[in-house]
Amino acid sequence: xxxxxxxxxxxxxxxxxxxxxxxxxxxxxxxxxxxxxxxxxxxxxxxxxxxxxxxxxxxxxxxxxxxxxxxxxxxxxxxxxxxxxxxxxxxxxxxxxxxxx
Length: 101
What we know:
Helices cover 48% and strands 10% of the residues. By secondary structure, it is mainly alpha-helical.
């Protein structure tokens, strides 16, 4: 299966990508964004971003805005939960669930 990813209007969309490929794309873009805020030499997908103290409240708000803009999803009030944003892995799962709807 081939992956078709396009970056248009400052966001990433995936068409017919395998779930693992989608996850990798989301992780890569999210990691790139987070490197603006986190001084970790190597940020891992499972690192706790919020509960681990890596992001402060302003960076967390910026992260939510980035996810909406970059992956063309809408983050609703009920989506603002640590289970969706506390790690890169959680963010990838959240984005995929939103895109599958």
